[in-house]
Specification:
Elements: H1 2-7, H2 19-28, E1 31-33, E2 37-43, E3 50-54, H3 63-80, E4 87-93, H4 102-115
Helix pairs in contact: 3-4
């Protein structure tokens, strides 16, 4: 049981950290748009998905709101990572979230994750 819990963590191996990683996903120019979020994706050639999150001050002026959006994105990814195709993902906020509930934000991300196309196993990343 401890092994199953450890596998659901949000370790460094599951995060996009470098600017080059973010740039390569944006350069791939594939995205899905939901009610509040845009999900950019790119095959990564690894055996698991990785996540990066960006929240603009223009859409969420208060730091506590930006942090909440990022926490919801990370938690949704953490729970769904095993079912996701091996790709690099960037979650971007594209609409103000002033009237949105936490459940609506989480459901929007879950819908985007479910709409991701299956990535072929033999794809090698470009760049």
């Amino acid at each position: 049981m401890a092994a199953a819990r450890a596998d659901q963590g949000f370790r460094r191996a599951f995060r996009l950290q470098k600017t080059d990683d973010f740039s390569s996903v944006f350069a791939f120019r594939r995205a899905l748009r939901g009610r509040f979020h845009t999900l950019h994706y790119r095959p990564n050639g690894l055996d698991t998905a990785r996540l990066g999150v960006t929240v603009a001050k223009k859409l969420a002026k208060r730091a506590c709101v930006r942090n909440l959006v990022k926490r919801i994105a990370r938690e949704t990814f953490r729970r769904e990572r095993a079912a996701l195709p091996p790709c690099d993902l960037i979650v971007r906020l594209h609409a103000p979230v002033t009237a949105a509930s936490r459940a609506e934000l989480g459901q929007d991300l879950l819908d985007l994750f479910n709409r991701l196309p299956a990535m072929p196993e033999s794809v090698t990343p470009v760049g």
